[in-house]
Amino acid sequence: MTPVVRFSALARVLHWLMAAMILGMLFVGVFMAATEGPAYATLVALHRPMGIAILLLAGVRLANRLLVPPPPLPAGMPLVQKIAAIGSHIILYALMFAMPLVGWGMLSAGAYPVVLWGPVRLPPILPHDPVLFAALRHLHSWLAFTLFGVIVVHLGAALLHGLILRDGVFPAMASWRRRRRDIA
Q1: Is 0.85 surpassed by the pTM of this model?
Q2: Model confidence at 3: pLDDT above 80
Q3: What is the mean pLDDT of the chain?
Q4: Which end of the chain is less congested by CB atoms within 10 angstroms, N or C?
């Protein structure tokens, strides 16, 4: 068996933790859009601090990626796939920062507090402006649709590499796999 060059343990933990959090946030956002009353307030109380947690973890994740470079892509991977892989990761990182910042800015423009827990609130990052609030709310929704689409493509690429190509890309991030099978 050929050993797999893997992402650092911190990179793998952050990847899977954030994957679960981001998917959870997308579903919470969908339910928020379709809910009213006490259930809506509960979802909002969950959505805001999770968004800030994702923002903070994205910063840790980016710092880790810059300090501990990822494993190289397979040498035989076509150039167009390498460009797509790098580009999709840039888009994912941009969205991991943009979504929570736009959400925070939207709430600030709407004069809504960003309550983390109990009395702990974040300061507004934009002035109160109903027109800006509406524009940012629209942008937040479109960024969510974009994030969902990029995640679907990312998942498809992971399955392609893990199930069909078996080129070591998937096991590099899958923390439960220690070695890949030789392709006979």
Answers
A1: yes
A2: no
A3: 91
A4: C
